[in-house]
C-alpha cells in the first residue's frame, strides 16, 4: 500500500494511473484548480507548487513519485477571507492581470523568500557565501522561471519587494 | 427597459467629472483580484462537470493535401478510448476576430502543417493523449505548396493603397532622405492559459465553458459551425487567462468539444497543448517593410512612403494592417502606401496584440531615427516638427491629439538629453550604453455594446453583459463607472461578465472594450439617474448621488420604493466614427546596455508617456501600459517565430524556444499618463489602452542600441548575433 501524498495538510491516495502528473493529480483528481497548466513542459512556471518546502514545476513530476511528500498549493497559502501577506501584496500592487500565472508566481515567491532567508545564492548574487542582499535584481533572477504574458513583472517585483522588506525588517 | 444612444456628435459635457462619488479614475484594486490571487477564480477548463470525458486533438503532419484515411480501429480498443471524432463540421482554423461566421471546416482537407484533423476522446486525459499519439492517419500530399512569403504569389490590399503627389520626385528634391527596408519576424500571442472548452448538451441546448474574448461574435461562429440555432447555445467565459488576439474568434477545441459531447451524449473537455496553441491558432505575420522619408533641411517631411509585404493562408481575409497609423501619424504631402499579402501554407495569420502597429511602428520609428541623424535634428524635435494639423490623407480632423504633449512630458520625465547625438559615447566595462526614443500611435476603435444595470433597494447595483475581462480590468472599471454614476462605492456594484445569457457587449479586442462597454453602462446608468431624479423631484443634471443617497439625504432605497430599477444601455457609435481620425498617442524612451563582446542587449530603464482619453482606473490603466512596454522588449530583442522551409511548420512552438520576456528581461518601467478628455472617442471620453503601450516601443530600443554601440540594424528582433554582425571592431 502506497503512502499517501499530503496536500495542504490532507492525506490523499496516490492515483492508480502512473502517467498522472502531480499537476493533473492536483487539478483533476483533487479539484485544486488554483495550480495552473500553462505549458505542461516546465517552461512557464504556472504550475509551481511547494513540495517539502521547495518550489517545483508540478507538470514535470509524476504524482506517483511523491509518496509521503507534503505539497502546498496556492489554496494552502491563503483564502479569499484570509489571504497570505504575499497574496494581499499582489492584489495591492496589481501584480497580475489575467490571473492565470498568478498562483504560480505567488507559490514561487513564497518559496523564494525562504531561499533568501537561507542565503541560497543565485546568478544575481554578488558572492556565493554569506548573507544575500535582497535586491530587485535578485528577485527578478529568482522569478525568471515564472512567465507572465500580460507583462505584470514590474508590479510583481514591487509586491515581492514589499513583503521581503517586511520580513527582514 | 432598453435605452439606445447612437453617438453622432462629440460629447464634451464630461458628465462623469461632475459626479460626486469620486471613484472613477482612482487606483482601485481589481474587484475580482482576491479570487485570482487565491486561485479560486475558475478558468474555462476548471469547472467541475460530472462524467466529463477528455478529448485530445490530432493534427496534420503535411502542409497541403488530404487525410485520406483515419484508422479509428487503431485506437478504439485502447484502454478508456470512447470515440474518434472526424466530423466534417470540425473547424480547422480559429475564426478571425469579428468574423461572425464559422471559420474553415472539413478536417480531411489539409491546408497547413499542424492543422487539426480529428479528436480522440477517452475517459481520462492520459488515455486520450496516448491514443491521439497512436491514431493512424494516411495522407495524399499535394506537394509544392508555397511556403516562403518572399517567393509566393502576392495580392494587393487595395483599400490600403494611397498614392498622393509624387513621392519619387520628393525623394529626389529632398534635402535629407531615407530609403530603408526593415523586416520583422512573426509573433505569437502566447497567452498563459491554453485554449480550452467544456461542452455539455441538455437535449438540444448546448452550454460551453470556453476561453474566448468576444462571446457576442463567438456564439454566431459556433452556431454556424454546428448548424444549430444561436438561441440554443450558451457560452461562458468568466475568466480568460490572457487573449492578446488569440481568442478573438471561435477556436478548434470549442467546436470539437461540442461535436464530441453531442455524439457521446456526455460532457467533453478539450484543452489544447501549448504546442497546439502555437501551431493551430494564430500567428502575427512576418513583415518586410520599405520606408521612404523625404524632408527639407529643417526636417519637415515632404514625402512619406511605407510599403509592406505580409502573408496568410489562401482565402484568409486578414492581412496584418502594418500601415494603420502610418496613414496619419506624420505629414508629407507626397505619399505612397501599399500593403501586399503573400499566399503561403503556413498556419493562419491573424490578430496578435496591436495588429498592424505592433509591426509597422517599430519600422517607421526606426526609420525616423535614421532621418533625425541625417538631418542632424534631435529625434524628439524631428517628430514635433512633423505632427500634422489634420489627417494628411483624408483631411479629417483629429478627435484629439496628445503626441506633442507625450513627447515633451516623456522627455522631461526620462531626462532626455536633446544635445547632439553620436553613437559609442558611453562605455562601462564591457558595456556600451545608449538611449533612444520613438513615438507611439494606435488607432482608436469603438463598437456597439449592450449592458444591463440593476439598481436595488438595498443600495447595491448589478451590471450584466457578455463582455469579457481578459486581464484588462473590465470588472473593475465597470464597477467604477456604475459606482460614479449611481453614487455607490465600487464594492457594492456586482459585475457579472462573460455569459451570453446577458446583453451582448463588444467583446475584448482592438482595445475597444473599455470605451465601448463602458459607454453602454454609462447609458444605462444615465437612464436610471433620470428615473431617480424624477422620483426625487429634481432635474437629472442636478441630481447628486453619493454613498447611496442624494445630496439632500434621500436614500436610494427609499426613492426606489422597494423595487429594482433596471435599464439596459445600448451604445452605438454613429457619425463620430466617420467624422474624425481618432487615435491614442504616446512616446517611448529607453536606455540600454549592449555588450561589446557578446552583442547582448539589456534594457536598463524604459519610460512610456501615453494619451488615451479619460483614465478609468489609474492602477489598471498603468498595468496595461506596463504590459505593452514589456511586449515591446520582446519584439525588439527576442520574439521570433521560425518556420521550417521544407513543410512550413512552426519550429519553435513552445515557451522554451519562443522567447517572451521574463522577469529579468524587464527593468523598472515608468509610465506617464497624459490625461485628456476625448468626447469624439466615446461618451465617457475614453479610448483604449491595451495595445498602445507596444506600438513603437521596440524602435526606442533599436534606436538606443544604435546610440549605444553604433549597430544600425534593420531586422527585428535584434538578437546578439545580429548586433555583433554590424558592430565595429
Q: Helical percent range of chain A?
A: 25-40%
- CATH topology term of the largest domain in chain B: Aldehyde Oxidoreductase, domain 4
Number of strands of chain B: 28
Terminal Cα span of chain A: 47 Å
> Biggest interface between protein chains, with counts per chain?
A-B, 64 and 62 residues
> What order do the strands of the largest sheet of chain A run in, or round the barrel if closed?
2-1-5-3-4
CATH architecture of the largest domain in chain B: 2-Layer Sandwich
**Mean of pLDDT of chain A:** 96
Number of domains of chain A: 2
Distance between the termini of chain B: 74 Å
**Quick one: biggest sheet of chain A?**
5 strands, mixed
Question: Percentage of helical residues of chain B?
Answer: 10-25%
In N-to-C order, the SSE pattern of chain A is EEHEEEHHHHH
| CATH homologous superfamily heading of the largest domain in chain B | Aldehyde oxidase/xanthine dehydrogenase, molybdopterin binding domain
Counting helices, strands and paired strands, the structural category of chain A is alpha+beta
- What's the gyration radius of chain A in Å? 16 Å
In total, the number of strands of chain A is: 5
Topology:
The complex is a heterodimer of chains A (169) and B (729).
Chain A: E1 5-7, E2 10-12, H1 22-29, E3 48-51, E4 54-57, E5 70-72, H2 74-77, H3 85-93, H4 102-117, H5 136-143, H6 153-168
Parallel strand pairs in A: 1-5
Antiparallel strand pairs in A: 1-2, 3-4, 3-5
Chain B: E1 2-7, H1 33-37, E2 53-59, E3 65-71, H2 73-76, E4 81-85, E5 109-110, E6 116-122, H3 125-134, E7 136-141, E8 154-156, E9 162-164, H4 167-173, E10 176-184, E11 196-202, E12 205-210, H5 215-226, E13 233-236, H6 252-264, E14 268-271, H7 274-280, E15 287-295, E16 301-312, E17 334-343, H8 357-375, H9 379-384, H10 403-414, E18 427-428, E19 431-443, E20 449-455, E21 461-464, H11 474-486, E22 493-496, H12 513-536, E23 545-546, E24 549-550, H13 556-560, E25 565-573, H14 576-579, E26 583-595, E27 601-611, H15 618-637, E28 669-673, H16 697-709, H17 720-725
